[in-house]
Inverse folding.
């Protein structure tokens, strides 16, 4: 017998609904908590959404954030924040800081003269400092970017809901969407809790998470539909447990491979992209959880049509078209 | 599903081979890039220097030479989002309409009475007439100046919106004409910006219209957004105007038909000049950086035939008088005409350094922007930071791939090897499709590839888990594998469609790096379905045919 690494043994029969009130309670609490965090702490919006200027400085010598702040204090730049960036790849010869300057006027950009002043000021405390990147976004654009981002998340959610409704039943679509909202809220909550930078790439990560989480949910739903056809009389709860056990190995397997890939990116991918990878990694974990504990529960509560073999000709919704492969299943 | 016809096998392997072939140039990135640059340079100049010939020979012509474009965040460079002030053009149109309208009204003076232009909001032309009761006639005259709008949507409508109240005649552009003008203005700006950037000769700039009145400019390799802004941010409207007087009073009244403009290099000095120019920069056919007789940087220019004629006529009639060279509402210099200039060429000198004179020459050659631009977004990424990101991206992709391969092989044995090969081929296919499309790889795009490495095995996992179940249910190997593939199909398709929806939304609503990420993700979805379903199946079929296994441990 060849060795096989199996995180999930064959033929599991967990009862995923045994603690359903607890798990669902945890999910609900986490969602409420995220909303509260969002209201209380808000998000650490990047310049994409808030406008302003960021400067990334690099220097071969170590520096004190305080010195930088001191050097820039005479420049009358308004709201300035300086943070040092750490990354294992930097070693001892590279010291990076992010300087963020709030919007000062309509265009939102720091003028070239100001930029030169900042560079000169920093050079007095750290002669070898260079500007690796400078980015400015005006308040006009940042306002639009927020709007676009919200549209994007909304459009993706509706698009996915519509597709699932088309392929399955409305109960499934609703279940999937509630689990998507769950994932989005929890990811936003995480960003609020740790005050990670929330910008356009975070939205991209959020959308990817939506796709991934849904991907998971759909695989489970697909199997559930198959089982609904196979076992016409078994209680829905039993069928769901059966389905979930059957797909558990795959759910875990895919979550683990994705998590492995993302962890590599998290550790070795550099600091520029770290927040983006954190958002995706967290999204994968939450998405996996919500597949098992949120989406199904919603479908269970909503109930689902059991007789798949004879579609009622009078009410033939698009979701009821059963592929030939399922009709003659044993 | 397991008997794959010969032609299909050939097709699958052929596609993979093609993918490998088109991905290879990326392995020799610098060489191929130099090869491509040499070809473009030779095409532009019409001849080939020995260095270019050597660079071209560095990569064989018969091999594909498409490369994955590196985004600004990887290559370094500048990114600008500019907004064109389309309203500027309304004002210019109204100003040029005024003399025409005045002449037409004055011709009917005994009917409409005296004509006078009065203050009106910018972009509108307001005229008071002496006989308000004859307003209908005045409106009719103004209507006579209107022309139909030249655009598809506004076809048949008049380009002027004319209204009257009391003794006041109001003229402005109609909405249809405004829309058509806006479109033209942005197109022109785009064209001129492209010409200016091409003049400087940087590699593969992206100059794109965004939305109604915005232009996105990305230039890899340029030092800073500031440099780029100086090149495209200046309107570069050059005119030659008669000088009325010179003054130190910033509040001097220029009088009707004249304007007061500051001098560029003498602070506190102002010139009153006639508003309508003798010749404008549009008449220039050439402009080159040079030096004046004192060895100071200057710009030599040459007019076309009609410009030369007018300039010649004016200078011969005004010997001894000063005239002003005006650039973007500043007087560069106001030399005195010593003799008639009939050759059509001249020189602009003033306080500028070599860099500025070179830039001015470029700007004059490329032409003036039809309207001003403001910048809403500026980003500069240094080349070192980009290189760091590439290195980090490469390292993490390799580690991610190795880790996923190890995990897959540990979980599924030989079938894990098949899936791993499929994953690696998948990454190569992503790169080759991107090279063929000339798509742009961004840092989030690299993360997208890494993510794809993780998720591409998903389809294989679904299939393998299914085969395991079928085997446990006691089916024979062939039957189990066959059923595994066919039963898993609908789950794979559904799962990928939902991811595809999310990626499509990102593509249409995102910009820059996010768009790059969406492109990478979408290509990855398509190629991963191909490798997981077709390539893995083909490998399994080959294995079945070769070993004819009696049992399968999965």
């Amino acid at each position: 017998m060849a060795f096989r690494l199996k995180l999930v043994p064959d033929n599991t029969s967990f009862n995923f609904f045994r603690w359903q009130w607890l798990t669902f309670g945890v999910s609900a609490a986490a969602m409420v908590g995220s909303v509260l965090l969002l209201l209380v702490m808000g998000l650490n919006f990047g310049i994409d959404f808030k406008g302003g200027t960021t400067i990334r400085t690099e220097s071969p010598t170590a520096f004190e954030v305080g010195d930088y702040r001191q050097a820039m204090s005479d420049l009358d730049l308004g709201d300035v924040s300086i943070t040092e960036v750490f990354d294992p790849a930097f070693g001892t010869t590279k010291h990076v800081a992010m300087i963020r300057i709030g919007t000062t006027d309509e265009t939102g950009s720091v003028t070239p003269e100001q930029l030169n002043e900042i560079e000169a000021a920093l050079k007095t405390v750290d002669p070898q400092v260079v500007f690796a990147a400078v980015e400015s976004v005006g308040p006009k654009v940042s306002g639009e970017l927020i709007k676009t981002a919200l549209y994007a998340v909304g459009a993706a959610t509706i698009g996915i809901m519509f597709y699932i409704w088309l392929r399955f039943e409305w109960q499934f679509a609703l279940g999937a969407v509630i689990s998507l909202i769950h994932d989005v809220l929890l990811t936003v909550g995480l960003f609020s809790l740790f005050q990670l930078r929330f910008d356009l790439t975070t939205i991209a990560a959020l959308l990817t998470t939506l796709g991934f989480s849904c991907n998971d949910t759909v695989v489970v739903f697909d199997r559930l539909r198959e089982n609904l056809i196979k076992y016409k009389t078994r209680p829905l709860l039993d069928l769901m447990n059966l389905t979930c056990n059957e797909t558990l190995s795959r759910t875990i397997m895919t979550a683990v491979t994705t998590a492995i890939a993302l962890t590599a990116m998290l550790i070795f991918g550099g600091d520029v992209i770290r927040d983006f990878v954190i958002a995706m990694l967290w999204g994968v974990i939450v998405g996996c959880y919500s597949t098992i504990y949120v989406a199904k529960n919603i479908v269970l509560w909503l109930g689902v049509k059991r007789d798949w073999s004879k579609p009622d000709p009078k009410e033939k919704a698009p979701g009821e078209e059963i592929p030939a492969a399922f009709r003659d299943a044993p | 599903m397991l008997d794959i016809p010969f032609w299909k096998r050939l097709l699958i392997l052929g596609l993979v081979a093609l993918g490998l072939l088109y991905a290879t140039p990326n392995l020799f990135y610098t060489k191929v890039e130099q090869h491509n640059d040499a070809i473009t340079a030779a095409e532009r100049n019409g001849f080939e220097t020995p260095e270019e010939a050597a660079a071209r020979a560095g990569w064989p012509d018969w091999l594909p030479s498409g490369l994955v474009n590196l985004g600004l965040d990887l290559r370094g460079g500048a990114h600008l989002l500019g907004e064109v002030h389309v309203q500027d053009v309304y004002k210019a149109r109204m100003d040029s309409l005024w003399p025409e309208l005045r002449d037409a009204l004055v011709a009917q003076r005994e009917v409409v009475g005296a004509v006078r232009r009065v203050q009106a909001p910018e972009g509108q032309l307001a005229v008071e007439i002496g006989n308000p009761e004859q307003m209908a006639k005045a409106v009719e005259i103004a209507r006579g100046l209107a022309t139909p709008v030249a655009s598809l949507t506004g076809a048949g409508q008049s380009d002027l919106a004319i209204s009257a109240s009391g003794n006041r005649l109001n003229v402005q552009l109609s909405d249809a004409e405004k829309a058509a003008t806006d479109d033209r203005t942005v197109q022109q700006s785009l064209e001129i910006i492209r010409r200016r950037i091409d003049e400087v000769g940087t590699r593969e700039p992206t100059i794109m219209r965004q939305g109604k009145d915005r232009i996105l400019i990305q230039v890899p390799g340029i030092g800073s957004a500031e440099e780029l802004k100086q090149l495209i941010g200046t309107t570069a409207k050059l005119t030659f105007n008669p000088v009325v007087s010179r003054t130190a009073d910033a509040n001097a009244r220029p009088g009707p038909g004249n304007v007061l403009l500051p001098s560029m290099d003498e602070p506190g000095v102002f010139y009153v000049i006639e508003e309508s120019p003798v010749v404008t920069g549009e008449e220039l056919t050439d402009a080159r950086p040079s030096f004046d007789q004192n060895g100071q940087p200057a710009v030599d220019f040459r007019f076309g035939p009609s410009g030369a004629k007018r300039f010649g006529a004016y200078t011969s009639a005004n010997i001894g008088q000063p005239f002003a060279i005006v650039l973007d509402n500043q007087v560069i210099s106001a030399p005195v005409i010593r003799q008639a200039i009939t050759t059509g060429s001249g020189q602009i000198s003033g306080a500028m350094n070599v860099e500025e004179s070179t830039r001015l020459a470029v700007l004059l050659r490329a032409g003036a922007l039809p309207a001003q631009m403001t910048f809403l977004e500026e980003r500069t990424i240094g080349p070192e930071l980009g290189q760091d990101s590439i290195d980090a991206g490469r390292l993490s992709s390799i580690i991610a791939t190795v880790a996923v391969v190890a995990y897959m092989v540990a979980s599924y044995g030989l079938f894990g090897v098949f899936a791993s090969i499929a994953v690696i081929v998948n990454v190569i296919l992503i790169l080759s499709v991107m090279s063929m499309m000339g798509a742009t790889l961004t840092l989030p795009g690299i993360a997208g590839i890494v993510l794809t490495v993780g998720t591409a095995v998903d389809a294989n996992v679904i299939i393998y888990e299914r085969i395991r179940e079928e085997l446990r249910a006691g089916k024979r190997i062939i039957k189990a594998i066959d059923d595994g593939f066919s039963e898993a199909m609908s789950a794979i398709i559904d799962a990928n469609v939902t991811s595809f929806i999310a990626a499509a939304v990102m593509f249409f609503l995102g910009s820059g790096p996010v768009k790059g990420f969406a492109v990478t993700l979408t290509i990855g979805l398509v190629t991963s379905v191909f490798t997981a379903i077709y390539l893995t199946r083909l490998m399994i079929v080959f294995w079945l045919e070769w070993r004819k296994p009696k049992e399968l441990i999965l």
User: Anything to note?
Assistant: The longest helix of chain B spans residues 513-547.
